[in-house]
User: Fold this.
Amino acid sequence: MVVPVNRHLTRVLPLLRSLPKKIPAEYQAALNKADSYARTMSMSKRGIYDQLKSASGENFSPKVAYWAATHLSGINWNQNALEKAKSYRDDMSMSKNAIYDQLTSSYGESFTASQAQYAINHLD
Assistant:
């Protein structure tokens, strides 16, 4: 079934109008930091959020930090967990059980259980 263009535009235009015209500078700055943490330090989404909102970190508001952490794109969180796992194995000679605990701990890396398990399963 082909939807007439006018009917389609009637549904789409209100959605397009509701999108922000420009991302506020503070949100863009937080997103840039989040992207850097994800790509250069292989951090988890939760770890990035915590770092962005921390007074001893970037000190963004929780709202801005959450927005940035949830608007990252093109990040493979499983791969980030694996990179962290390799670092713990190679640099600290940790066991797989200890690595898993470190990856999932809120005092450690804060990866999800499935991301940590992926990392453990794919360690060389």
